[in-house]
Amino acid sequence: TYQGKTSKIKSLDKDTINQICSGQVILDLSTAVKEVIENSLDAKATSIEIQFNNYGLDSITIIDNGIGINPDDYESIALPHYTSKLQEFNQLEQLSTYGFRGEALSSICASSNLVIISCTKEQEPMGVKLEYDYQGNLVKKESVARKQGTTIYMKNFFELFPVRQKTFKKNIRREYAKCLSILQGYALVCTDVKIVCSNKPPKGSRDICFSTQCNKLMKDNISNIFGSKVTKLLTEIDFSFNINSGITIKGFISQPTNSCGRNSNDRQYYFINQRPCDLQKISKCINEVYRMFNMHQYPIVVVNIEVKSDEYDINVTPNKRTILIHNEEELVTQLREELIKFCEPYRNIVATSGIN
Ligand code: ADP
Ligand code: MG
């Protein structure tokens, strides 16, 4: 296997690969987008720009100001199972980075044309432009001017898979909406990072879809993304539960009298220890309680759940969105009681404000 001199990137051994259920190819656009924004965050970027062209149909570019890619890693970075972030499975429990399987870039190569421009602090003002083939082999390398950071350029999605590409083109608006929703999750939860997302339609100029301003507080991210009108409908919650070694649920939720959305997944964002995820049982619980107070509305939810790192499992699904909290049933029961207490004072109040 390839190994550069000062490279931190190493191939995971077979057992570790099997344990973390790798071997997954990028299945859709939103997974690709999720992986690249996580890489930028892992690279400690404080500014991340995501540019869609034609809703992602033509290309997607992600520009960050992170630490850049170590030159010794250029050859290996897009090969399957190469990562600089994890060596043994037992490190998973203390994992502080988003990525750890070393398969995102290789999957992106298999699904699109990947070009990377990157520059480390030491290399400034000249970085490098790297092109990879479908197998993740480096095929072209040239010097280009670049400040510290990394640009990931992906185009021609699913070119090698005509059937997939046809479905992709047909469903592009839905795929694009899913991308935005995934990206908004990171933009909501990440403080001290400026995240700007834009799209350029085939005819017309580039539109900003949303942007955050390097805020210190999640509340200001919410305001940047949903607008101040929506933010006014929210109440801060801070629940503590005596489950496992203690679980807290903190964040913002709309009052049950406000009309906030008729689709259950409109504006509901869940995080575990700041990691965006899908928590179906918790979401279901919250929606059910709200329905007891307001038949037709779903609440806006932006909450972070703090759980000790060895009391949940993140690698249940390949895209790491599904997380299993130990004793989740108990958490749901206690959350339901807290929410009913929270909603009770609003029972006889007629809805006065709303956004629909
Ligand atoms: P993983 O994130 O699991 O390590 P990836 O395939 O996503 O695997 O990325 C492979 C490697 O490429 C990372 O470990 C990292 O060293 C490097 N890398 C990818 N994107 C960036 C980026 N935006 N900035 C700096 N390094 C990056
Ligand atoms: Mg990654």
TrEMBL record:
Domain DNA mismatch repair protein S5 positions: 222-344
Source domain of life: Eukaryota
Protein family according to the UniProt entry: Belongs to the DNA mismatch repair MutL/HexB family.
Protein name (database record): DNA mismatch repair protein PMS1
Phylogenetic classification of the source organism: Eukaryota, Fungi, Fungi incertae sedis, Chytridiomycota, Chytridiomycota incertae sedis
